[in-house]
Amino acid sequence: MRSFASDNNSGVHPYIMDAIVKANDGHAVGYGDDPWTEAAVCKIKEIFGKVASPFFVFNGTGANSVALQAVTRPYNSILCAETAHINVDECGAPARMTGCAVVTIPTKNGKLSPELILPRLHNFGVCHHSQPKVVYISQVSELGTVYTIEEIKAIADLLHSYNMYLHMDGARLANACAYLKCTMKQITVDAGVDILSFGGTKNGMMMGEAVISFRPEITENLMYYRKQSAQLASKLRYLSAQFIPYLENNLWLENAMKANISAAKLADILGQYSQIQFTQKVESNQLFFTIPVEALKKLQEKYFFYMWNDEINEVRLVTSWDTSGEDIARFEQDLKEILDSVS
User: Fold this and answer.
1) Half-sphere exposure of 88 toward its Cβ, with a 13 Å CA cutoff?
2) Minimal CA–CA distance to 96: which of 73, 131, 65, 71?
3) What is the pTM of this model?
């Protein structure tokens, strides 16, 4: 069934699938000592710079948990937006696996800023309080909004002045780059990000992420955190092989642009109706809006999607790299018929 529920629901790009099949050629040494993993590491270094040290893992929650373990101790605290994925959608895994307190900060658009973070930076050196050590941000945010390069630099500069780290969850990093028209290096290591959870599952890959460290002292123990967190695949080649075509010939960017363009087309359609009000700017492949309850119920009969806020009938739609023109045309027709019938 085609839907706009999540980019996790989309299929695997043929180039990625071909790479997995080709990696299934004979025997190879396990746990990453194989030519596919070596090639993927080289490709990531080409994209992010020689300082980048990638460690491949199974999934996004694992990537975030491993990354945050690498930059904290159990007496530290992790600061994030109230809507952050690590706070809302990971069943407490990062808190459990780091032992850290997760301190949430309310935001209107899912994005943090130095002004929002600074009041939480206190009690350093006081043994009665968790010690702030890392700020977690999502790029794209959980509300579909995008941090500019300047906004990331401002946060990183503040944190580094306090001897803290900046962790970026890049599950939809490609969509942010497509929106900002920048490279992944410019928006991460060049902007002061210290460690990155780099995902492609939402953008054409089958599974797997990479935790990428940009600091030698973080890299030092990452291999151990990955193993202790049950995130080291024995047949690692099937994860790492996907990153080769994903990063070649800008496939990552092509896929993200397709998803963003589809979201913009949906936004144009939704924007034609006064009954529908956007709750966030459409800057990526996610759309957040409110819709009258009668229309909502009829739309749910035809499409599977997630409610974001039941109290105000707020809906989230997500487009994917493989969202088609037919998908959008069908939705446009269905929406028109539904709104005409309840008006």
Assistant:
1) 14
2) 65
3) 0.97
